Amino acid sequence: MPVTIDTEKCGKIQNCPGEGLCIKICEKGALVEEDGDVVLVPENCDDCDLCIQNCPNQAISKV
């Protein structure tokens, strides 16, 4: 099951203390930057949960 991103908690990458850490650690390319936002590419998500564990804003979770 792919993750979901709470855009209110996430904010823009420029406001992220991890500077888009979730995108950097996703080996499958399931999280990408689009106009400064983190966007999920669900078909690439392999449920590894690395993004959930490493999001400094706790903005990523399972549905």
From TrEMBL:
SUPFAM superfamilies linked to this entry: 4Fe-4S ferredoxins
Domain 4Fe-4S ferredoxin-type: 36-63
Pfam family membership, one: Fer4
GO molecular function, one term: oxidoreductase activity
Superkingdom as given in the UniProt entry: Archaea
InterPro entries: 4Fe4S_Fe-S-bd, 4Fe4S_Fe_S_CS
Protein name: 4Fe-4S ferredoxin iron-sulfur binding domain-containing protein
